[in-house]
Amino acid sequence: MMAFISPDKGKETLSSSPSDAARDQLPWVEKYRPSDLDHVLAQPDIMNTSTQIECLMCLVKKFIEQGRLPHLLLYGPPGTGKTTTANAVCCALYGAKWRSQGSVLELNASDERGIDVVRDQIKTFAETRGLQSNTMGTFKIVILDEADAMTSAAQNALRRVMEKHVRHVRFIILCNYASQIIPALQSRCTKFRFSPLQDGDLELRLKQVADQEQVQLTPEANQAIVRLARGDMRKVMNVLQACAAANSNPTMAIGEDLVYAVTATAHPRDLDAAFTILLQESSIRMAVLKTEKILQDNAMALSDLVTALFDRLCVYEIPKEIRGPLLKAMADCEHRVSAGVNVHESIQLRALVGAFFQARLQA
Ligand SMILES: Nc1ncnc2c1ncn2[C@@H]1O[C@H](COP(=O)(O)OP(=O)(O)O)[C@@H](O)[C@H]1O
Ligand SMILES: [Mg+2]
């Protein structure tokens, strides 16, 4: 595990912001983004998937030292440090001012990235000489952020560009799911899997940033933020900043209620109540009405309720005759809701309530 960034170090490593005033205006996600590989937190299981031995940061540093940076494919859930790592690699290669040097082409999902972009923009960038010298000779970097959004035709075109220009250009491909990247590209890259950060790391970082921004949180609020983030550091930063902005009385510590309010999530006690209703209410009609009311009162989507119920089903002691069918019912419900049938959420809610009643009959 890498050492945690100390508050002062955090300030120092913010290369992209020229002055304190400019930096203060950045969202905290950017303000506290480490710019240096040593300060990117490596989870014990960010491994190179082919070696499974060395941690990502050590390996990337070794690549840079030896002047043998391969194409990289960094994948994993949001807020785990993929973009930060790609930026830190550029910083290690070209120095803190890498963005203004023209050695890096950054493309993300908001840019058009069809086959034409690969043919034109990336190829032009790759073919243009006038390379900056860096610590390992002369090559440029293309960062393809959120590459799962690229069409497979564009990925196929990229394959040839990658091969043709490998002497002058390295690609860093970032995505949530490696499976969305065509095998031919995957096999040209060294792959690293990022996993959700550990709660302890999120908590420590949360406390450091809160201290630095002079935001006070109750221990319950701290815990709530970490729990809601589920390993996503971006969410921690955004929720903290939203709470700080929403706190009407900055002399008072932020409590957990504000955390739930700004994230539009239900308080655990309401989720417990929903869970109890589904397991114990004797009338289906009442169960539907009560659950609907909880959803409405908390402005909650059904998919959030399903996720919360799922957590409870995993933790609480429930006979396996009930747990099994319920897990399947929830997975189905979650699938249907996420597949875009939100307009019929009330039908899905009834199906879920029905599944609970059916499971209870089997116990
Ligand atoms: N491993 C990490 N170490 C330190 N900070 C992190 C890490 N992962 C994410 N963060 C923080 O969370 C925010 C989002 O990180 P980012 O690298 O953009 O995530 P993503 O994996 O979605 O690309 C940044 O502000 C960054 O400071
Ligand atoms: Mg990213």
Concise description?
This protein has 17 helices and six strands. The chain is of the alpha/beta class.
Mean pLDDT figure: 84
- Which CATH class of the largest domain is shown? Alpha Beta
How many DSSP-defined strands? 6
Ligands bound here? adenosine-5'-diphosphate, magnesium ion
Uncertain runs are 1-18
Number of H/I helices? 17
- Write the CATH homologous superfamily of the largest domain: P-loop containing nucleotide triphosphate hydrolases
Neighbour order of strands in the largest sheet: 1-6-2-5-4-3
* Total of domains: 3
Q: Tell me, briefly, the overall form.
A: globular
What separation lies between the terminal Cα atoms?
A: 45 Å
Write up this protein.
The chain is an alpha/beta fold and 363 residues long. It folds into three domains: 34-193, Rossmann fold, CATH 3.40.50.300; 199-262, Helicase, Ruva Protein, domain 3; 268-362, Zinc Finger, Delta Prime, domain 3 (Up-down Bundle). Helices cover 53% and strands 7% of the residues. It is built from 17 helices and six strands. The protein has helices at residues 7-12, 20-24, 28-31, 56-66, 82-94, 115-127, 152-164, 183-186, 199-212, 219-229, 233-246, 256-262, 268-280, 284-297, 302-315, 320-338, 345-362; strands at residues 47-48, 72-75, 104-107, 140-144, 169-175, 190-193. It has a six-stranded mixed beta sheet with strand order 1-6-2-5-4-3, with helices on both faces. Strand 4 (140-144), helix 7 and strand 5 (169-175) form a beta-alpha-beta unit.
